[in-house]
Amino acid sequence: MTVKEKLAVHAADVEKYLGECLDDLSIPEGLLESMKYSLMAGGKRLRPVLVLVWAQMLGAKKEAVLPFAASLEMIHTYSLIHDDLPAMDDDDLRRGKPSNHKKFDEATAILAGDGLLTEAFGFMTKADAPPADVVEAIALMAKSAGSAGMVGGQVVDVSYTGRDGVTLEELRVMHSMKTGALILSACKSGAILAKGAGATADDVRRAEEYGRLIGVAFQIVDDVLDVVGDEASLGKPVGSDEEMGKSTYPTLIGLEESKELARKYVDEAVELLEPYSGEEADFLAELAQYIVDRVY
Amino acid sequence: MTVKEKLAVHAADVEKYLGECLDDLSIPEGLLESMKYSLMAGGKRLRPVLVLVWAQMLGAKKEAVLPFAASLEMIHTYSLIHDDLPAMDDDDLRRGKPSNHKKFDEATAILAGDGLLTEAFGFMTKADAPPADVVEAIALMAKSAGSAGMVGGQVVDVSYTGRDGVTLEELRVMHSMKTGALILSACKSGAILAKGAGATADDVRRAEEYGRLIGVAFQIVDDVLDVVGDEASLGKPVGSDEEMGKSTYPTLIGLEESKELARKYVDEAVELLEPYSGEEADFLAELAQYIVDRVY
Question: What domain of life does the native source organism fall in (chains A, B) (predicted)?
């Protein structure tokens, strides 16, 4: 199997869970429809898959962490719904379909996002792991998704748009908040939730570092793909950042150096997997390689 | 001390904590300013005070539950920010000051709300209680604030506006979702977080029932005050629901019967406090009475 096929197999578990998990919560019909419209609109399910695979590699059972894994996709989805709003990026389309507020209306889109974000924390509590570890993982997610993480990164990103003189360090910090924190936390929370199954502090540290590295690599590659074009990007229209006058890795350090930097981070991520073996370890290594292979 | 003075004393603890708790989280400056603008805009701090007083009455320490209590005010505040948005209620004013999106802008208001909601769950994890109880209390809050609770209630409320034939039962369910769930959960989470200090399942059940009853009474009284007018209402402009053609308790069952119904619920709430004594128990009884006294 190729890494894409393996990713799809893991994603299918997430897909099935996501498709059913909101149905029995007594959510008002119109709101449920709007939440599911965006939640089930496709995507690679990368974040939940990272939770699952790290947890399983470290000894946890898939069923034990699936609700927590699903919560990361709910958080990712809510952020896309709110980012698309007219007051934000004002995007009419998301993955080739009308964005939530175009399909429904703005009020519904705001509330669908609020609902998904709130339910996400509810599903986190369903993790079948020692309660102290669940609390630790929830605290991590709140920090990563919150105002010093994903939400804060969006604010910083907007403040950088069109601004001259954004430095590489500022760009790095902004991305680490806006997209990196959630990817890092996906890996790290998977490891935290496997502590009851034997995962050690070193495992948690490696998961965090792996997540940090592939998160940065992912962002650099996305910036590169914005220049060279690729269907496999994270879903942004080609050239969008360029057109808005944003600083990107290629504009700051050049195309070739960006590609080399992404390669370097991916190599470091793969090295972190050395203590592990088995299909999950192989998959995590291939997944890291796949990120950067897209630009070679 | 009057009940209002006692409420203010408890609220002062919450106020102090809220004023400082976001400062050391590395939140981008503009976002932090917007979050604190709404969070520190006043209000009775009823929800966090209910957490504190129930927890303390059942043996928990104030410091142990203060972060969790504060999280309820963050959730309440985020809901007000998002409700005021142009796509929702389009309110330019909140408590006599410009609403968040008027003071800042819509994008900032959306993100400030998202940030407060996310941080709320982070502060819940800081409760100093047995981890299993913390997880239980977080699950309760996610359910109450989520798409089958507060967020869902907002959707149902909008769907009822201007609609003929809303029944008393439909109105009751809508309010129990939109405002009741959070008040119920304030009391119940306080009791849950006191389980490690000796609170029993019966205590938790009484807290839940007290919260349910005063929540309904509060809503009925607010509807009554919309008709008869009172400065002490929950903050809605007098007559606003009437003008929008909404069904309310007085329009459905009449003014006098509404007042009697609120009185009945408050009496039941006070009865639930019979097993308890001391200043917290006295305060909770006086608080319930105070709700309904406003219309007599």
Answer: Bacteria
* Average pLDDT along chain A: 93
pLDDT of residue A238: 44
Which residue type, as a one-letter code, is found at position A190?
G
The DSSP result for chain A, as a single string, is: --HHHHHHHHHHHHHHHHHHHTTTS---HHHHHHHHHHHTS----HHHHHHHHHHHHTT--HHHHHHHHHHHHHHHHHHHHHHHSTTTT--SEETTEE-HHHHS-HHHHHHHHHHHHHHHHHHHTT--S-HHHHHHHHHHHHHHHSTTTHHHHHHHHHHHTT-TT--HHHHHHHHIIIIIHHHHHHHHHHHHTTGGGT--HHHHHHHHHHHHHHHHHHHHHHHHHHHH--TTSSSPPTTHHHHTT---HHHHH-HHHHHHHHHHHHHHHHHTTTT--SHHHHHHHHHHHHHHHTT-
pLDDT band, residue A132 (cuts 50/70/90): very high
CB-CB neighbours of B273 under 10 Å: 18
CB contact under 8 A, A27 and B152: yes
How far does the CA of residue B121 sit from the closest CA of chain A (Å)?
A: 6
Residues B3-294, CATH architecture: Orthogonal Bundle (1.10)
Q: Which two tokens stand for residue B120?
A: 């709320």
pLDDT category at A165 given cuts 50, 70, 90 is: confident
Question: Mind listing the pLDDT tens digit for each residue in A224-242?
Answer: 998 887 544 444 444 454 4
Q: How many CB pairs under 8 A join A and B?
A: 161
Q: Do A147 and B30 touch (CB under 8 A)?
A: no
Across A257-267, average pLDDT: 96
pLDDT (tens digit per residue) in A20-75: 999 999 999 999 999 999 999 988 999 999 999 999 999 999 999 999 999 999 99
Beta strands in B67-135 (DSSP E): 93-94, 97-98
User: What is the ipTM, given to two decimal places?
Assistant: 0.94
Nearest chain A residue (CA) to B139: A122
The residue of chain B nearest to residue A108, with distances taken between CA atoms, is B155
CB contact under 8 A, A105 and B119: no
Spans of chain B, pLDDT less than 50: 231-239, 241-243
Question: What pTM value is reported for the model?
Answer: 0.95
* Residue-range domain boundaries for chain A: 3-294
